[in-house]
C-alpha cells in the first residue's frame, strides 16, 4: 500500500488512548438500557458485546470461553497445549447451555459405577445417558446424580443396576419445540429430556437448566444450532494444519491464525495452505500494526485483522526490539487501509473502559482483552496471596514470555535450542489483582459503552463508530499534558 502515511489524519500520528477525549453530542436516548452494542467480530460473525478474550493460557480457556459467549462476547482458546487438549476444550464449550445437546455423553449399561464416576468428573456433567450396547446408540436409561448417591461404596457394580431404566423415562422426538419441551419437563418434574427416534436411537438431550439459560440470555453468542460459539488459535508452521482440522472438526466457529509479526511471508504461505482446504471457516489473522499489514492480510483472505504490536502488559517487543506503532495510530491506519471491508480487532493497550470506547470510535469493531480479564474467577490458574502486599492476585503472562514458551512451545527443541529460544522471548509474566467474576467486568464495560454511545449522540454503538470514525478530527480533541492531568489524574 503506497503512501499509507498520507491517508492517516495528523492527529493520530504517534497517538494512543490517553491522548484523546471526544466531544459530547446532543443525546436523544431516553434510557441507556435501550442502547445496542452489537458489532462485527469478522466478516460474517456479529457479537452483542464487543469484547474478545485474548488467546492466552492465563486468560481464555474453556471456562472463560463459555462465560464470554454466554454473556454475548467472544474469545479464542489458546494453542499452548496439545491438539487433543485444545479440541477437547472446543467440544466442552459447544456442549454447554445449548437448547439441544446434539451429541450427549453416553455410557454403556455394562460399565461399572466407578467408570461412570470418572466420565462424569472428566466431562464436568451431572448425569449420563446409558446405551444398551457399545456404539449402538439405543437408549437404555439415565444414570443421574441421585443414582450415584444410591451407589455409594458400590463402585464395582454395573451401571444398569442403578440407572433409571427406559420404561420409567419421559422421552420425546428430536423435532420438539423449546416451549413444549419446557412444559413437558415441568409437568413431569424431570430435569433431563432425552430425544430419541421411534427405534429408541439417541438423537440429543434437553436439560431444564440449559433451556432456561437460553431464555434468560437471548443475547448469548450462539451458532445456528443454538450452541455457544467458540474461537480457537493456530500457528503458521509445523502441525498447524493438523491443529486446524482437529479444531474445525470439534466445532470451532472461528479460527485465529496468530503470530507476533503477521505482515510476513510465513503468514502468507500459511493462509494459502489454510484457505486451500478450509474455504468457508471464518479466519482472523494477526498481529499487525500498520495499514500496509492490515491490507496485506485482507488481500490474503482474512475475515478480520487483529491489530497491535507491543502495547499489552504481557509484551516486551517495543522494549526489547524497538518495533511497534502507538495503538490508536495502528488502529486508525488499519481501519483506513481495509476500507470497511473487514473488521478490526484491537489487541492490547487497554487499561480502562474509556480506551475501549475510543478504540471503537476511531475504527476498531471489537477489543481483545488480556490483563483486564486475567484476574477473574473464569481465567485459568489459582488465586494466591501476594507475599508483600497480602492482596489476592493471579498470574498473567504474555504468550511470548519465557514461562509460556517453556510450558508449551519448547516441545521439539533440544536443551541448547530451548535455552537460546527462552532467552530471546519478547513477553513477560506478572501478577494482576484478583477481581472476582468476569461477568461483573462485562456488565461494567457494557454500562460505560452505553454511556459513550449517549455522549456520541447516537442510539447504538455501530452508529457512533460510523459517525466518529468517518470524521475524527471533527469530534476528537488531542490533549495537552495539562489536559491529560486534568482528565485522568484523580
Automatic annotation (TrEMBL):
UniProt name for this protein: CBS domain-containing protein
Coiled-coil regions listed in the entry: none
Residues of the CBS domain: 100-159, 163-221
Keyword set, alphabetical order: CBS domain, Metal-binding, NAD, Oxidoreductase, Potassium
Transmembrane segment boundaries: none
InterPro entries in the record: Aldolase_TIM, CBS_dom, CBS_dom_sf, IMP_DH, IMP_DH_GMPRt
GO molecular function: IMP dehydrogenase activity; metal ion binding
Binding-site list for NAD(+): 258-260, 308-310
Binding-site positions, K(+): 310, 312, 315
Family the UniProt entry places it in: Belongs to the IMPDH/GMPR family.
